[in-house]
Specification:
Elements (H helix, E strand, L loop, with lengths): L2 E5 L2 E4 L4 E8 L7 E7 L6 E6 L4 E3 L7 E6 L4 E6 L8 E8 L12 E2 L3 E6 L1
Length: about 120
């Protein structure tokens, strides 16, 4: 079991950058594949990015703009978001699962509470 707490959300101008953090407890993040998902008002939750020991994956909508990384020393996963667009506005959730990365929401049993990201035009 792992507990996840997101932070770093806020309001940013279009074209700006924001860095989200996901602090994990229970086990080191290196023991899990970690994912970021987001959900905009009135829309389905969607996959953003995932990281494992051997594989990083990104949704097409964020490739080249977002970077997922981890720091095992502080047991934290990050999502660096650059060139932000208004369509990136959503609640961002950190999630964890064993083994390899996945873009499927149902394959992640552990979730954080979410952090709001708002991008103004």
């Amino acid at each position: 079991q792992v507990q996840l707490v997101e932070s770093g959300g806020g309001l940013v101008q279009a074209g700006g950058s924001l860095r989200l953090s996901c602090a994990a407890s229970g086990r080191t993040v290196s023991s899990y594949a970690m994912g970021w998902f987001r959900q905009a008002p009135g829309k389905e939750r969607e996959f953003v990015a995932a990281i494992s020991w051997s594989n990083n994956n990104y949704a097409d909508s964020v490739k080249g703009r977002f970077t997922i990384s981890r720091d095992n020393a502080v047991n934290t996963v990050y999502l660096q978001m650059n060139s932000l667009k208004p369509e990136d506005t959503a609640v961002y959730y950190c999630a964890a699962r064993r083994f390899g990365t996945s873009s499927q929401e149902y394959e992640y049993p552990y979730w954080g509470q979410g952090t709001q990201v708002t991008v103004s035009s």
